[in-house]
Amino acid sequence: MTESIIELRHLRTLLALEETGSVSLAAQRVFLTQSALSHQLRVLEIYFDTPLFERKTSPIRFTPAGERLLKLGHELLPRVAAAERDLMQIVQGEAGELRIAVECHTCFDWLMPAMGVFRPQWPQVELDIVSGFQADPVALLLSHRADFAIVSEAAPQAGVAYQPLFAYEMVGICAPDHPLANKPVWQAEDFMDETLITYPVPDDMLDLLKKVLLPRGINPKRRNSELTITIVQLVASKRGVAALPYWAVMPYVEKNYVVHRPIGEKPLQSELYAAMREEDSERAYINDFCTIIRQESFANLPALSVLAM
What we know:
- By secondary structure, the protein is of the alpha/beta class.
- It has ten helices and twelve strands.
- Helix 7 links the parallel strand 7 and strand 8 (about 220-225).
């Protein structure tokens, strides 16, 4: 019997290509260089003597051969993932507790859907969110008041392990008739005379301040709000400007309540990591939850990029 040339990695690559519509973004998603991804697909195309997708189209269009492999990927990969999960549950047990602490005010846009996917797959794991936004969620891990923390920095600390989740673009927003709406890219100096509307958190938890403004000696006057929608409303009524994740403001941009602009020539990026106690870092359900977060977020949120440790 001839050994099949089609491997799971090929199917994962094709699904990443379908989801992103771009060879470069798909390569990021599966942790390959663009040339390595192209070579991987060319091996299949040479073997079957047919192209799998049309080059130089945006978004990418698949040929009938590519569509057939995509169909196989959609059928097979979920079954493989389910089998792997069953094996992990057999070996490690399927019960446990996963209390989540967050420091990010916009986390719930992607966290709740990920929890919804996780629950039926690990029904014996008690999944809950520690109430409120936490300035130091890692301390909750170490005191056993939480089991999983979502943080913006993987700061080395004894007894704590990290997994990268994703990076995302932070954009500046202002009212459509604000003078800054006429600038295609905002620089640090553009914030100097503005009121900056932020969440009520320390400066070192705000990437705009930490990475862009304070290094330039710029510390604008502030106004705080706990709620993203309130920040957007204040910006729309010209009470100030703000910097928020693109995914959080996209619905309001589409309705023309506010406009968004990149911050800096190399657009401002923020990062999110999962933190856990070191002794829990091999627990199957914790690792699976990290995988689900990445999969669901990349599938549903715009302007994300792969984050490596």
